[in-house]
User: What shape does this take?
Amino acid sequence: MDDLICKYVIKNGRKIGESIDVYENNLIVKVGDKFIAIPRSCIIKVEAENIHVSDFDEKTAEELGEVWVVEKSKPVTLEELERMKYE
Assistant: This one.
């Protein structure tokens, strides 16, 4: 599948946000000051600047978006850096 990051996300012909990550088979989308996680199975079409998605469970998307924020906000330990070889 084409690159999914830094594209506008379109649902029912309306721009709802911008894609910023793929996490556990979900597309992470910044919507205003929140983040939602849309299942990749809801992706209908990927274009140069847009990703079109079908309907999805918005409550679940918001909950998974919050999980993503918590997960991405965790500090990285020196041991993890060593394992990733970023030191």
